[in-house]
Amino acid sequence: MAKLSENAAKMIAEICDRYKDEKTPLMMILSDIQNEYGYIPLEVQELVSAKTGISVAEIYGVVTFYSFFSLEPKGKYIIGCCLGTACYVKGAQQVIDKFSEILKIKPGQTTEDGLFTLDALRCIGACGIAPAVSISGQVHPKVSPDQVAGIIEEIRQKEGMSA
Amino acid sequence: MSLVNIKIEGVPYQVEAGLTILEAAKACGYEIPSLCTFNHGECNQGSCRVCLVEATGARGLVASCVYPVAEGMEIKISSPKAVEARRRSVELLLSNHNVNCQQCLKNGNCELLHVAQMTGAREGAYQGSHSETYLDELAPGLVRDTSKCILCGRCIARCQNAHGLGILGFENRGFKTFVSPAENRSFANSPCIQCGQCVSVCPTGALMEKSEIGKIDEAFRQGKHVVVQAAPAVRASLGEEFGYPIGTPVTGKMIAALRRLGFERVYDVNFGADLTIMEEGTELLHRLTEGGVLPMITSCSPGWVNYAEFNYGDLLPHLSSCKSPHQMQGAIIKSYWAQQMGYDPKDVFVVSVMPCVAKKGEKEREQEKVNGIPDVDAVITTRELGRMIRRGGIMFNRLPDEEWDQDIMGDYTGAGVIFGVTGGVMEAALRTVYFKLTGKEKESITFEEVRGHDAGIREAAIDINGTVVKVAIASGMKSASVLLDEIRAGKSEYQFIEIMGCPGGCINGGGQSYVRPCFLPNESDDILDTYKEKRAKALYTEDERQVIRQSHNNPQIIELYEKFLGEPNSHKAHELLHTSYAARERFA
Questions:
Q1: Which residue of A has its CA nearest to B165?
Q2: Which among B85, B97, B432, B529 could bridge B52 via Cys, Cβ 3.0 to 4.6 Å?
Q3: With an 8 Å Cβ cutoff, are A59 and B182 in contact?
Q4: CB-closest option in B168, B173, B585 to A57
């Protein structure tokens, strides 16, 4: 199994220590690790297990239960296509399929260049502007499949990675 | 203790407050079909929905295993609504279950099949998709087949409670949920210690030992000299496979059955246990007198050895270098015995009957082999022996009582018998150490202070002619870790520690007969609290009946050293009877 770098281990330990007085600290620890470290691979879980006394299998169970947590590094831009009821009836499935087709990844996966992760989300509370797509926190309203190529290209250009 | 008034099917009862409906009903003489709950709530997720009943004050049906009784509650178990709901719950479980009952080794002990029969579940009542399933057969001792898992969580709870390990957990969510070591790894690539406690609580065939009966068949087919040896704890449990009350020793019938299964020799591992005491006792005396690493810790339990290698790699020098009794005896069978018989060791096939699942892996360790030859070729559990006896059409309860084969290694002492219970190895060792230090036997023979039958730590200070030996005993890794952390912190005050993998020792090994109250109508309600004690008693009674009760007085052991090994811890003894350990990565 891959070994954690010293810096990473220090960071994870520091996050665990933040919640050492909590009765049930696991969700908070994992949330912070997801946000700050980007993902929660097994070697990180082992460290959390050693710090908290919670078994690795239990931590792994929590990580795989919630789609917010990721076992693999996520891309720089996280494209979240809402597939909640309102978005779905407004054609969100076609939108996410288009992202899949152009980026050549399935929902949940990350592009090889590490730029994009595609996620399928349940209702994000933006039903009025369905179908909604959230890209790293910024919500794009009423996205049609035709707009998808342009959205991707815009980001690629910004990153100097235009195709 | 406060009481509440309830009614079941209109009949008034007074029951203890705080009980669940399931427990209260049991006390009143009703067995509500239930599945996921186990052992006083050791596992109590209320997840299977098999135990649904009607209860006033509740909205809809309630899971009786988690719902507490309340004053004035009226409970209906056999109303059409409750009966149908329970039946449908079981049918739903079956709809996502690999129903190949005929081939399933759990058949006969399957609680799912039991509740299916109780509730009248119909075959194929619900058709639909099946969850993706996984089969893990890579580990030496355990097989995990998620196609038979009902997600009750008993295995998860047991691993956590017995060892604080938590190897298993629920993975993923909803219909995709399954139980596995982290990352859906094989047991073989996880820090699982192979104790088999999960197997002993699994209600279905999802967790099983890896059967080695086929290997034995093959050895017979090849015309090998097949020799069998049975561990002390097996005799205290094998009877349960054939309907004897728990704690009935069946030594004589077991020997008779083994002979009828065609084994060339039927030996007692107690001889190996006596040999272990000679080697381990001598090792302890050396360490005590020559400033060796202390405390010395026993190494008979392969589950414990696995745990140490995964979690306390820095403490491995504390482990006795002695092999476990059946490995020692296997080595002697393939050397001394084979020599006397004029056999090539390669033509000798040694089978061990063990209360243990971890022994299956132990026999395959490179460090156990002598010149590349394993000491033991096949390990079967108490349950597998039961299967072989049934398969052979042997009517166990009609067998006469027979004696062990007496040539070369037939003698054994009471000290060997008690190896099967927590504290037994310690007591056996102390009997011999006492003699070595004082030159005479301890008058009262026994060391009651180290005895017990449950998990938890016991300690004692034994005064031997002014030399005080401080000892501690632990079984189950949760208890063991307390003693180990003390050693790590440099605070341990003991000279000798006995550690057994399973809570209570081998009598409660992961390979022993299942203790399932639903299949034991004649045992008392508290059988899950008392079975260990009952099995332990069977062993202590056998010890008391032995004329010779100290390993160093076993005449054949004395002869073995005179004719073959020289003296304890000799060069030859080290070559055959000792082993080594190495730290292992937890998630390699």
A1: A55
A2: B85
A3: yes
A4: B168
